[in-house]
Design goal:
The complex is a heterodimer of chains A (about 325) and B (about 475).
Chain A: H1 2-32, H2 43-47, E1 55-58, H3 61-66, H4 69-76, E2 80-82, H5 90-103, E3 109-113, H6 138-143, H7 151-155, H8 165-175, H9 200-207, H10 218-233, E4 237-242, H11 247-250, H12 256-269, E5 273-275, H13 296-314
Parallel strand pairs in A: 1-2, 1-3, 3-4, 4-5
Helix pairs in contact in A: 1-8, 4-13, 10-12
Chain B: H1 6-23, H2 29-52, H3 56-75, H4 80-114, H5 132-147, H6 157-165, H7 167-170, H8 178-181, H9 193-226, H10 233-264, H11 282-288, H12 291-302, H13 312-330, H14 334-352, H15 369-387, H16 391-401, H17 415-418, H18 420-434, H19 449-466
Helix pairs in contact in B: 1-2, 2-6, 3-4, 3-5, 3-6, 4-5, 9-10, 9-18, 9-19, 10-15, 10-16, 12-13, 13-14, 14-15, 15-16
Classes of the chains: A alpha/beta (about 325), B mainly alpha (about 475).
Chain lengths: ~325, ~475
Amino acid sequence: MKKFIRTCLLFAGVAIIGAVLLQRVVDYGLKKMTNHTSTQTSIAQLLSDTLNADILIMGNSRALCSYNPAIIEQETDMRTWNISVSGQPFGISHFRYQLYTQHNKKPKLLIINIDNNELEMIENGFGREEYYPYFSDSTVRSYLDIYGFTWKDFYIPMYKYFGDYKLIGYGLMSSVGMYPFPAQQHYHGFYNCDLPFDGETLRSVLRDNKLDTACCEEAAIQLLDEFLEELRQQHVEVIFCYAPQYQELYQRLQLADCMVAYRQLSDKYAIPILDYSSVPWANDSSYFYNANHINLLGSKLFSTQLARDIDSRCR
Amino acid sequence: MLFNSIEFALFLPIVFLIYWAIGYAHINDPLKLRLQNAFVVLASYVFYGWWDYRFLILIAFTSLCSWGSGLLIAKSREVRAKSRFWLIANIVLNLAILAVFKYYDFFVREFGTLFGIFTDSLLLKIILPVGISFYTFQALSYSIDVYRKKIEPTHDIVAFFAYVAFFPQLVAGPIERATNLLPQFQTIRKFNYDQAVDGMRQILWGLFKKIVIADNCATYVDQVWATYDTQTGSTLLLAAMLFTFQIYGDFSGYSDIAIGTAKLFGIKLMRNFNNPYFSRDIAEFWRRWHISLTTWFRDYVYIPLGGSRVGKWKIVRNTFVIFLLSGFWHGANWTFIAWGAYHAVLFLPLILLGKNRQYTGNDVTWQDIPKILLTFCLVVIGWIIFRAETITQAWEIFGRICNSSILSIPWFESAKTILPIPFILAHVILIEWFNRDKQHGLAIESLNPLARWGLYIYICLLIIAFGAQPETFIYFQF
């Protein structure tokens, strides 16, 4: 009996130590990789003190490919960074802003992207793996409830990577300097999407009739409200901005509820709303890579126009 | 409580330590035995109650009735009619409980529809208690064996309750016989190091089959089956093949964990699977698949009906009876009955030609592979019927598999879902092939310690890297 318990404890010890070591190696490797997730500004960058932007942009994938920091910098002569993240609503953007401010100076101007998908808190699990290597960071940990992580993810070694053989592989490869993806150049978090128009997104949205309602959650509005109050106290200037959207899609969206919410907050905190949703070229598909997202050409036009509009405001 | 859960990972060592603490306590043997059995009952009821404590009363009632009937049968042995009465009373009572919980709605729906009197209000819509078919059959085997004088009735109610509710095999078998399991609860158990270590190995292998094989296959199979009416024949065929591995990994994985866990408590359970997909014909498949259920029907239904030592028509009848019952045991659905009938049709030629026992040993070789593949294909066809929700659905799936879309490339939602499956299936096939004469895939006691530990760690790594999101065990619903 004693021998059996000893053997079991020995095996458990070997397994736990092995799992802890493996987790450390995978964590280390993934921290070194910045291009395996849905974000262009990695958590490692947010937690570093190297961003220090004067103009900061936050939002979802539409924001990611619309606001080109290089152009805005050129026009305004102010350091600009886009910390937007693909596939995530405001709850996650807010979290990323908190990470940013832990280690970087407050921006002078914060551009909050607004659209039909931003006012959400719902966690869909998309991109959650980005946070795996940072569970030991207290700031990251304090926000992870939004992703539905449990104590098992935090305390059982390798549990968070359970079944994710690809991520484990990437982490291991990266830890020894073998990066599975070619390095991508994302200037200050911008997603440089130089692609022609793909109508499939529009067709599927219209076919599946996914246009009934725009997402507008009370919890997200409440969080945005509190956030804006915080920004007012910190004297951070804020702009709500609606980036261009392909008109065939935009005109079918039922945006009334969420625009009412944005307008109420805009009135309450005296925040201007810059609405570029229906710029004249938004009918031209050559500026979009799908109905929701503008391409590099569109982002040049939009960012230039936006930069000129905000230039006077920033100074 | 699921075997593949953190709760069970905590529950098992606690129960193990308390159980053997009682076993090594300085008290007299009868008291020790009683305390250990009482603790097994307590632990088993906690294990079962974790899922739904309300149904514990059902297990207790089944146990009490079967224990009482055993005593009454033995007491009235001189008067055969009387002892037969107690046996039949117990069988009727147990089957009535099973019928109410499992089959009532099915019969009401079918007969009601047939006679045009069906309304939704006639249905009971009761939740099916987990494992009811397993422990009911186990309890029944006791009273039948007492009646047949194969075993003496026990006066020890605690041992009997432990026999019915023993947690490793309570909810999904193996369906134990009183002649094998009950005496083990009536004698002092001694801890056996080799047995316990082998139990741990079997648990690890069972977890691998469940978490890596079954749950990965389930991800693909469930997606395809949910949209079967838009899928191509090649996709449906691939899903059917993966379901073949899913159900094997799921059920044999559960059995391995159950048998391995029992070994930790000094209890030997019967083998439930013997590499069924290495069978060379359908008769051999049924000697290797869900052995505890097959032999149950053989001993308590087929042989009493005359077995194969009767005329040809009766052989046909008996074969259909056990296969249809076996199908119906799985659930109240025509698909299970059709699945049983399909296997009866495959089995009949073999038994009528006297070839049903031509493969009885574990002497499978590489030369047998064509026969193995043919048998495997026949089994896959059966699983399509089994997995379908209705006969119509099964028929539609067969229709799609048989049209020209069988030549198209199967659908994959993402490479991440499908890529690891060939890799992990190769592991289970190769390991079980090379260990096909052993009790389980990981019976590797003859390897040197370094290789053994290396293999354990490798399997743990495979579980971590390729484990899929936990699914409940398929056989819980039966």
